[in-house]
Amino acid sequence: MKPKTTTRPWLILLVVVLYVLHEDFWFWSTYKPLVFGFLPIGLFYHMVYCVAAMGLFWLLIRKAWPEGLDETEDSSEQADP
Amino acid sequence: MILIYLGVVVGLGLSVRLLSLRNKSSAEFFVASRGMNSFVLLMTLFGTHMTAFALLGSSGEAFHEGIGVFGLLASSSALIVPLGFFLIGPRVWYFGKKYGYVTKVQFLRDRFELHHSGLLLFGLDVLLLVPYLLGGVLGSMFLLKSLAGLEFWQGGLLVMTAVLIYVFSGGMRSTAWVNTLQTMVFMIVGVIAFVAITKALGGLSKAVEDVATKMPEKLARAHDGKVHMGYLYFLGYTFIPLSAWTFPHLFAHMLTAKRAANFKTVMIFYPLCLLIVWVPAVLLGVIAAVQPEFPQSLRLNQVLPKLIAEYTPALLSGLLGAGVLAAIMSSLDSQLLSIGTMLTEDVVVHYGKRRRKITETQQVWIGRAFVVAIAVAVYFIALATPATIFALSIWCFSGFAAQVPIMLAALYFKRATRAGVIAAMGAVYVLLPLFWVAARHYQPVASNRWTILGLIPVVYLVLISSALLVGVSLFTSPPSKASILKFFPATDAHAVSENSVTEAAS
Fold it and tell me: How far from chain centre, in Å, is Cα B437?
C-alpha cells in the first residue's frame, strides 16, 4: 500500500502558533512570581510550553499521521528481543 | 565507580551481540535489522542527541546567562526536534525499509539521482561530524582528568576502548541498547544530583528565593533595563534544533525502528525527556550563581561538578561522573558508527560494487575496520586538539540545519532537482566558513555568539539554502519519471497515466 497523508491546514496553523508563542516577550524581564514557590515564571512558561508541544504532537498523530507506512512487504530482518 | 560503569556498558554491548550472533548481514550491523521497539528508539534518539552539554553545559550556561537558557535550547528543541521526527522519521524509515538504505547519503543520492555529486553531501557530513566527535572525546578526557585524576591519554584510551568494543562487536544493535542504558543513567543521575544539592542548600524554595533576592537577573532575560538575552537572538536559536533533522547518526537510528508507528512514542515523550534533564540542570546553574564559593569567572563545565563536590557525599561525585560519561558516550558511539557506515556504504560499496560484488559479510568487516581506524585517528587527533574545539559545535549544528531544505525537498518537493540540491549544498560549503571567519574577525571573544542584524548565522544559512534549492530547481530539468514514481508513488501514478493519455493522443 502506498503512503498517504491528509494535510489539515488548521494543524499547520497550530504548529505556527506554538512556534510564535515560544517568543514570550511578555515574561522577558519578569522574574516573579515564583510558581509553586520555586519556579520563576519565565521558566514555568517554557515548561508548560514543552507540555503543550506534547499535546500538539498527540494531535498531529491523531489527525495527520501518514497512512500505509507500516504496510510494506515482510522482510527477513530480525526483530528486537 | 567510573570503571564499574564502563564495565557494565561493555558487558551489555557484548551480551546484546550474543543474542544476534547468527545474523551476519549488513542490515544487522548498520541498522540493527530495523527491529528496535518504541522505548529503545526513544531512548537512543534522545541519548544520541544529548551530549555532555545536557548536564554540564546547560547548568554552566544557566550559571552565566540565567533561566533564559531553558527557552533558548530546551523548549525550542521540544517543538522542533519531534516535529522533525514527524515530518521526516516515518517517511525515511519507509524508504529505508523498502529500498535498503542504511545512510542519509544513500537515500538522498537515490532520490536526487546524484552519483559523484553525492560525495559533496558525504564530505559535508564528515566535515561537520568530525569536530562534534572530537569534542566528545576531548570532553571525556577533561571529565576523567577532573574526576579521577587520569591523564588525558589515559582517560581517552579508557573511553575509546570501551566504545570500540561494543560498537565493533555489535554495531547498531549494541549501540542502541547501550544508549538506552546510558540515557536512563544520565537522566536519573541529573535528578539525584538536583535533589541532593537542593536539600543540602535548605530546600529548593529557599535556594531560588536567595537568587531572587541577590541576583534576580538570573531568573529573567532582562532586568533593570538591561537585556542579557536579545529577542532576535532567542528567535534565531530556534533554527539550531533543525540540525537534528539531518544529523547522519540520528538518521541512522531512525532507520532502526521496527515500525513507522514507533515514532509516535518518540514524538510524544521527547519533550518530557527534555524537561527531566534540563529543568534540574538549569535550576542548579542559577542556584550556584549566588553561592559564595562560585565566582562568575567559573568555567562552564565546572559548575555542576563543583556543586556536587561542595554539597553532596563523595559517592555522588562518582555517580555524576558516570552520568556525564553516559551522556558523552551515548553520542560518541553513534557518531563513530555513523562515520564508519558512511565510509563503507557511501564510498567503498557505492564505487566498489561497479567492479565486483561485495558480500554482506565483507561490508560488515569493512565497516568494522573503518570504525577502528576512525576511533584510533580521533583519539590521537583529540590529544592534540585545543579546548577551543567546543566553540565549533554551534557551527556544526548550523551546517546540519542548513541541509534541512534538502531533506524536506526529498520527501515533499517533487520538483526539486539535482542542480537545486547541489546549489543548496554549495551555499553551505561557501557560506559556513565565511561566516565562521567573519565571526572570529568581528567578535573574536565569544565568536560563536556573533550575530548579523541580531540573528545568528544559521537563520541566513537555512533561508539561503532554501531559496537556492527552490530557485535553481524551478529553472532546471525536472527529475526523471522513474525517480518520481519511486518516491512519490501515490501521486505519480496519476501523473504517469495523464502523460500516457497525452502521448497516445499525439
Answer: 24
Please tell me the distance from the alpha carbon of residue B357 to that of residue B134, in angstroms, as a whole number.
34
Yes or no: say if B454 and B465 are a contact pair by the CB < 8 Å rule. Answer: no
Question: Residue B240: which pLDDT band, with cuts at 50, 70 and 90?
Answer: very high
Could you say which DSSP state residue B447 is in? G
Asked if residue B298 lies in contact with residue B59, where contact means CB atoms within 8 angstroms, the answer is no
Inter-chain residue contact A3 with B91, CB threshold 8 Å: yes
Q: What is the mean pLDDT of residues B53-70?
A: 89
In this complex, do A19 and B275 lie within 8 Å of one another by their Cβ atoms?
no
Residue B384's pLDDT is what?
Answer: 85
A50-53: long-range contacts (C-beta < 8 A, 24 or more apart)?
A50/B74, A50/B75, A50/B78, A50/B271, A50/B272, A50/B274, A50/B275, A51/B271, A51/B275, A52/A18, A52/A21, A53/A18, A53/B75, A53/B78, A53/B79, A53/B82, A53/B271
User: Contact B180/B44 with Cβ under 8 angstroms?
Assistant: yes
CA distances from residue B76 to A49, B32, B235, B391, B485 in whole angstroms, order as listed:
9, 31, 9, 21, 36
Q: Please write the tens of the pLDDT for every residue from B390-442.
A: 678 889 999 999 999 999 999 999 999 999 999 999 999 999 999 999 998 99
Q: How far apart are CA B126 and CA B134, in angstroms?
A: 12
Residue B257: beta bridge partners?
A: B36
- Please give the grid coordinates belonging to residue B205: 524554595
Q: Are B285 and B306 spatial neighbours (Cβ–Cβ below 8 Å)?
A: no
For residues A48 and B390, what is the distance between their CA atoms, to the nearest angstrom? 31
Report residue B15 as a C-alpha cell: 551480551
| Chain A nearest CA to B17, separation (Å) | 12
**Nearest-angstrom CA–CA distance, B349 and B352:** 5
Separation CA B288–CA B59 (nearest Å): 9
- Type and span of the H or E element at B226: strand B226-227
A80 touches chain B (CB under 8 A): yes
- CB atoms under 10 Å from CB of B55, counted, come to 29
ipTM: 0.91
Task: Name which of B318, B327, B14 is nearest B165 in CA terms.
Answer: B14
Q: Which of A43, A45, A25, A23 is nearest to B287 (CA)?
A: A43
> In angstroms, what separates the C-alpha of B221 from chain A's closest C-alpha?
5
Q: Please tell me the distance from the alpha carbon of residue B342 to that of residue B337, in angstroms, as a whole number.
A: 9
Q: What is the pTM of this model?
A: 0.91
Cross-strand pairs, B232: none
Residue B298 confidence (pLDDT): 82
Rounded distance between C-alpha atoms, residue A54 and residue B79, angstroms: 8
Q: What cell numbers appear for B6 in the block?
A: 564502563
Write down how long chain A is: 81
Terminal CA-CA length for chain A: 27
Give the number of residues written for chain B: 506
Cell readout for B338 is 555513523
Q: Is A6 exposed, middle or buried (0-12, 13-18, 19+ CB in 10 A)?
A: exposed
Task: Among A1, A4, A74, A77, pick the best mutation site for testing chain B contact (most B Cβ within 10 A).
Answer: A77
Binning pLDDT at 50, 70 and 90, where does residue B116 land?
confident
